[in-house]
What we know:
Blueprint: H1 18-50, H2 64-71, H3 76-108, H4 111-118, H5 125-134, H6 144-151, E1 155-160, E2 163-169, H7 175-190, H8 195-209
Antiparallel strand pairs: 1-2
Helix pairs in contact: 1-3, 1-5, 2-3, 3-5, 4-5, 5-7, 7-8
GO molecular function: DNA binding; transposase activity
Organism: Leptospira interrogans serovar Zanoni str. LT2156
Pfam families: Transposase_20
Amino acid sequence: MIQRHPIEELPTVPIPNDEEEDNRRLCSEHENWTKQLTQGKNRLHSLFTQAGLTHITKKHLRTKANREISVALLPSRYQKEAERILKVLDLVEQNLKLIEKEIQEATQKKQAYVQTIMSMPGIGMITSLAIMSYMGDCKRFSSAKQAAYYAGLVPRVDISGDTVRYGRIINRGCHSIRRVIVQAAWSLVRCQHGGKVKEFYQRLYLKKRC
């Protein structure tokens, strides 16, 4: 490797500056708190299932006010655990608000860049911060294909003789970018006005079913 590097056969990986490292930590912290919020809501919902209150769905547990109304319907034997979960959820949501405020401040420092990223369908503040933190201006990528490989957004390829099959996206690359881009794509697929992304998904879905 030492012999190959001087002749530039190995790719150069730039060292992130302090600002990029701080933004990457924000992305990671936001992901961790979001997971805790989902886990807490799932745990709370399981109490309703155990109590036989199957008409209470996860949609009823999205906001603090709705959670408190729903928990009041639980039998007394489930109340204490539910109240402890409510306290945890309140704390998690408070932390998420603080982090999202920091994210907003971070994106405002490069407003022109962020506005360009957010002009793409499905891209919000969290996704734009991840792209900004990990990919920057993309000058270090020689092509769009190389950038896609870095983000882990290329399909697996199976070649057998003259047959080429494309599978799911590879399980490599930058996890933080891949996660938010996939979430953005799913949001477009599920919304009413998903545009070309939704149209492409529907064509691909029908093709895979045939």
